[in-house]
Amino acid sequence: MEGILPLYKPAGMTSHDCIFRLRKILRMKRIGHTGTLDPDVTGVLPICIGKATKVAEYITDAGKSYEGEVTLGFSTATEDSSGEVIEEKRVDRAILREEIVNTLTKLTGEVIQTPPMFSAVKVNGKRLYEYARQGIEVDRPSRKVNIYSIELLDDRETFEGDLVSFRFRVSCSKGTYIRTLAVTIGDMLGYPAHMSYLQRYQSASFLLEDCHTFAEIEEAAEQGRVQELLRPLDEGVSHLPKFRINDTVAEKVRNGAVLEIPENLLEEEGPISVCLNDGTVLAIYRKHPAKPGLIKPDKVIRNEPE
């Protein structure tokens, strides 16, 4: 069995829980997920099966899109609704739509984030959430992330009440913490805040409507038709720039040869999908670190003709 299974991750499960359950359903071990989703978060979690695990990292590194909700009025230790309340301040004024839209606009582009203590980021070989559970506060490395777009999904002109909530849609780079983004939005509006809801609706080229629930997967497994639910390995890297080659060059690619960068890809700094004219991906290449004008294989996906 080989391919990518777009899973609808339910609330209450970690990404690792999902893998554990799928291994039991599919009765195979070579399964990997493509980026951690917190237990409370639902939505798109592409699962790589068999040879498709070779492209898992490229899906993980791709952009993601979410629909979330910010609640102003209190913040929590985990920055979402499951954590202990650490600060409260009732919303004592009407917040205008224009204020929120301007705040979201200011957060578009490159921003600096500090990962929350309750996160899987490692410091000195230990996950931050492990320190947090022991009540230990440690210095956390800030990181640059990119917010490609963010928009308000609420059509109200004024927002009032002791607690104020509003939904937003965001597309962002790998490593962006939407929980932290929600807290930042609150800070900029003058109130403690947390993320009260989050669903991922896109990961790389996979959308919410592509996803299958555990119930659907279990039914397919009982009927011996799981392969019908799987998307081709090539779709996992369809978001990458493409370098199409002929059969003569293909043999060199399968053997890991260094290639000249095609003119249309000279500005690309990230991975490049090297594929046949029919779209079959043979390898992922990157710019050669020591030889200008050349690209070298990052990973050979198919080393034999099929």
From TrEMBL:
Q: Domain (Pseudouridine synthase II N-terminal): give its ranges.
A: 23-178
Any one GO molecular-function label of the UniProt entry: tRNA pseudouridine(55) synthase activity
Classification via PANTHER family: PSEUDOURIDYLATE SYNTHASE TRUB1, TRNA-PSEUDOURIDINE SYNTHASE
Enzymatic reactions: uridine(55) in tRNA = pseudouridine(55) in tRNA
- Its name, as the record gives it, is tRNA pseudouridine synthase B
Record-annotated active site: D38
Pfam families from the UniProt entry: TruB_C_2, TruB_N
Q: Which UniProt keywords apply?
A: Isomerase, tRNA processing
Q: Which family does it belong to?
A: Belongs to the pseudouridine synthase TruB family. Type 1 subfamily.
Q: Which organism is it from?
A: Mesobacillus zeae
